[in-house]
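Re: weekly structure request thread

Next one in the queue (925 aa):
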Amino acid sequence: MADPSIAFGPFLLDCERGRLLHGEMAVPLRRKAWAVLVHLAQSSGRLVTSDELFDVAWGGAAVTPQALTNVIAEIRTALDDDAREPRFVETIYGRGYRFLGSPETPKATGQPPETLVAREREIDVLTGEWERALLGELRVVFVAGEPGIGKSVLAEAALSTGRLAHAPQMIGHCVETASEREPHMPMLTALADFAASSRAGTVVSKLRDRAPTWLVQIPWLCEADERSRLELSLQGVATGRMVREGAELLRALAGESGMVLLLEDLHWADLATIDFLARAAVTASRSKLLILATYRPVDADRGGLPVAKLAGDLERDGVARTLHLEPFSRDHVCEYLEGRFGSDLAGSIAGHIERHTAGNPLFVRSMVDKLLSLGAIRRREDAWSFHGDAASLRDQLPADLRGFVTQELDHLEPPARHVLRLASLLGNEFDSRELQAALGDSSGSLEDTLDELAGAGRLLRSAGESEWADGLSARRYRFVHSVYRMLTEETVGPLKKRALHTRIADGLERLHAAAPGAVAARLARHFRLAGRAAPALDYLDQASVAAERRFAYQEAAERLRAALDLIEEALPPGERAARAADLWLRLGSLSVLENGYSHPVVARLFTRARAAAEAAASRQQEFEAEMGLAVYSLTIGRPRQALAHCDRLTHLSDRSFPSFRPIAACWSAFAQAAVGEISTARRTLEGAMGIDPAPGLPRYFDVGRMIESLYSLILANQGEEELAHRRASAALARSRSFGSPADLAHAAVMTTEVYVLLGDACGASRAADLGLHVSTENGFPSYRILSEFYLSYLDSGAGEDRRLERMTRALDQRRVLGDRWQESFLLALLAQRALRAQRPAEARVFLDEADAFAAEHGEAHHSPELARLRAECALVDGDRTGARNLLRAAVDKAKAGGMRLFEQRAVTRLNEIARGQERGPNGLE
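Done, posted below.
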């Protein structure tokens, strides 16, 4: 709760509403002037140093002494004070200032009471939860209730009084309109405000060390070159990394002194914020952190957000509790009235007001304000009294909040009413500069109108200032409650609303012409509601890009789907197919980032993209779609199907895009190698070497590096061990310099496989460790699981049984993802481990699975090894003839595919059997 209101001379500092009153009139003050005046008044009679006032108004930020001088001058102007003969603010030259007024806390002023009504238990609960948090146990408190029930008032009171008032606080507000939900915006705004305080150095240091995905989202916290490096190093990382780093950042910021994070209006949150809260409750569980979140259950359900589920899950885990706020009883209304008018008046009208408002605190206050404006409650001398009777006023009083807002609007002059209705379409809180742009009014009188409305305080209030990149500032305002904004908007008819959205869209577009992407989601919404589909489509496109930069791929995809819905309305027939192909391609890429390449939706999206590209006769888009389908087929272990896509890639590149040939060759060689055509794959790659590939395809991967990695794998298969080793090392080094985490994880996994084939256990372990680290850090489950599989296979410190158990678990996890590429190779490694563990029956099961998979999907790359391992099983059974036959078959298969490494292994084993050397299986270590 704010400090008590302070009266001095003819002035009143109404701290609850954040305004200076001269009698009944509001006196405008900017944010810093307000903060300095309140601090001076609270320190009446005491010398307040300039340094102290700099801390109060600027949070210790470096500003010139003139800034404070200007603020003091603004205060003196507002108070009609004279620096030479001061009545209120005296200058102590060279030291600071002293407040000369005689402040006192007024009683029964008619202003809302400064003590919180009917919420003592809830304040006690919040204080207790904070004390638990200070013991090192993260706590989450959800404050739930209907609109106007006092959720924000309770949160503000808790953070302004008692022990919580001294805690470091981060405060974020969720955006009201669903289509404007910027991913992670509540946390980003809270973090930016927190960093803008005197803690900026500490915050930036922790962001750099622990949460680079968050640092890159707040441009003014880092230099341009650092931001560019960060953006490159974070390309294509999974959504989970930002969520995890944010949770770790909270734990670090809380530190030893603790911290409170308040998230207001969680029913308007984006899904990324909900995910973040769920993760934070786990990752930061042993931190001195209290998370306080307010929400309306009904609106959360209507918006499809799982806020109530999150609260329930965290409560079951013992991390959270929910405070459900109830309406005021008659006694509570009486207490409220006593705080405003004293006991004489309260008892006579409390029952009537409670019945009329159903105890909704917001409506109670609105009703009392209405009675004051009607003169039904009046002050004579020092006493307040009620004039008339409740029955006679019933027809004059609004029946609900909607009626209250309607009456207030009707009593305004038409220009002020128009301003409020336009503002209601901008949002619960808005910037006067944006509103002015929408009005097209450059007269400068708008802020006067808004200040007058905020001074009355029944619908609007001041909300400080906003600083713009061009150095200008503007005042901010907010509706007294979001319900008032919504009800004000409801008074605007459909045709009028469409016209107003047009004015807002055009105004915002002009105002943000230098950087429209920053407000793309808002522009898209206003243009859409204005019935202008073409610009709405473009801004939805830009909003998707902005969401992707925050690694919020689900939200980015939602905006692309909304754009697809507008294509027919927005574009002429000849332009629709190419634009649709572009959107479907981007949806496919986002699905890969969100779900991995093996998810069935990936194939559906790239198929839609290919159809649209063909309709548009756009060969480049067709190439991109075909490539997506080829990689999908390879990932799910269907190389024959991939070959068909790759043939079309080759045809398209040869026909139209020579710079695409290396890309087509890369994927063709992958498919050829998978079906056992190793020599063909080598020729394909060598034919593409020396051609500079087109940049950006595929996204986040270096085609030249991929060719180098695959080439080293083919060299290993063909027995050129030294050259294979050298090329694999070069590919890994190239990937490190490329800077993409996805490319590095892929390079590490492929290098691991090369080293496993070459029998370099140390090199394979190092590469697998790198793959595990990069994929875990950045959220690549496919590469992470494969790295875990290889590390389990290579773990010489574990027993064979333990190795088998971990490898089998990793393979099962991989299948859950849908990843099947190289599965016959992984099953061969499992069979080898089973043989070493003297479990031949289990080895046969793995080999049977591998043969069945190869037969169904055409993956023949490792068929010689499967035959060789079956020969080992035959030897265990004493079937030397069967073993020799299997080994000869392995030799034939290896020769046919150009797989000299496997051929040599089979020949070596045949020779050992001929000499009577029947040791255990060799080869893959």
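The longest helix spans residues 573-595. The mean pLDDT is 88.
Next request, please.
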